Amino acid sequence: MWRKKTWKYYCGDVLRGVLSFLKGRCFCLSAEAVFMSLLLLVSSVRAEEECPLSCICARDSGTVTCRDGEHTELSGDIPAWATTLILRGNNISTLPGGAFSSNNGTELELTTLSLSHNGIVVIEADAFMGLSRLHLLDLSHNPLVYISDRAFHGLGELRSLYLNNSLLAPAAAQLSNALQGTETLRNLQRLELSGNRLKTIPISRLDAFNLHTLVLTNNSIENIGKENISSLYHHKRVRIYLSLNPFRCNCELESFYFWLKNSSQCADAARLLCAEPDAKKGIPLERLRGEDVGCLNENLEAVSYVFLGIVLALIGIVFLMVLYLNRRGIKRWLNNIRDACRDQMEVYHYRYEQDSDPRLANVAV
């Protein structure tokens, strides 16, 4: 739990100032009045100077920075004047519901909240309730395992959400419901999901947001499905980043390939490379030809083989039918050939016998 910064050093100065003020005036004040005045002044100083231990506070910019501490949970004593809270390098495993709710029931004025590198594993429902003015939320570099469907409930003014290198497999599967489960993030303009081993775009309905930028670099995306392509066609304002993904440059990539050729929405299109098959590995997608990913060519080749097989099968069937229908004539024809061959062999045999018998040879002379 955070502790407030000690403020005893200010009390002496306050007391000396008040006593000097009283000495220069001819007022007859009771001890009770003097005590109350001192209490109000000290409370005012404390309210202005409070800052959580191991944190750096800059009242002018409204920033509270707490880095590399030993905090294991959040506290409700965030200064009311803070608009930016940077909490980094701690050991906060869980963001419970109402984690940022003020003790006195008033909402915080935070517009920027950075919670990167804190070891956060679980984000429970309504974790960010009370931050209705928040514009930027950074949850990058946390080993998230569980994200509630209502994790981002109450962030109606959120413009930017950063979840880079944060999603383990269970959380990645839950992300879509967390983003689209409610209409809370309807004003979201920038979403960064780099380095999360995602295989697909976790947003099926872009119209649920006001997205301008979607960062999906360094994931495990092999292809962009037709549904996502159709959604991108209908939301021209979205700029998407897709480099460092292992694209499989085969027939299934056709829809994405032609979208890439005909649209300028992919800001890093020149950096998209084929990872498979080996013959195309390392080739930029922009340099591919239509026939390289054309389903028509592959389908025609497959159809041609099937057609050839069907033709050969039909020829075989016809041949067998002809044989069957003409089995008697064929049998008679075969018998005739056999008899002719037998007669011919007998002639040869007779001549052979004459040639081999000398007596027959003399009679012939």
Key terms:
365 residues, alpha/beta, nine-stranded mixed sheet, three-stranded parallel sheet, 8 helices, disordered N terminus
Report a brief summary of the structure.
This protein has 365 residues and is of the alpha/beta class. Helices cover 36% and strands 12% of the residues. Strands 1-2-3-5-7-9-10-11-12 form a 9-stranded mixed sheet, with no helix packed on it.
Helical coverage, percent range: 25-40%
Q: How would the global form be characterised?
A: rod-shaped
Number of strands: 14
Order of helices and strands: HHEEEEEEEEEHEEHEEHEHHH
Strand percentage lies at 5-15%
Supply Rg: 43 Å
Structure description:
The protein has 365 residues and is of the alpha/beta class. Helix content is 36%, strand content 12%. It is built from eight helices and 14 strands. The protein has helices spanning 8-23, 31-49, 169-180, 226-234, 254-262, 295-325, 327-356, 358-364, and strands at residues 55-58, 63-67, 84-88, 94-95, 112-114, 122-123, 136-138, 146-147, 160-162, 190-192, 213-215, 239-241, 247-248, 274-276. A nine-stranded mixed beta sheet has the order 1-2-3-5-7-9-10-11-12, with no helix packed on it. Strands 4-6-8 form a three-stranded parallel beta sheet. It has a two-stranded parallel ribbon with strand order 13-14. α4 links the parallel β11 and β12. α1 packs across α2 (31-49). The protein is rod-shaped and about 140 Å long.
Outline the fold blueprint.
Blueprint: H1 8-23, H2 31-49, E1 55-58, E2 63-67, E3 84-88, E4 94-95, E5 112-114, E6 122-123, E7 136-138, E8 146-147, E9 160-162, H3 169-180, E10 190-192, E11 213-215, H4 226-234, E12 239-241, E13 247-248, H5 254-262, E14 274-276, H6 295-325, H7 327-356, H8 358-364
Helix pairs in contact: 1-2
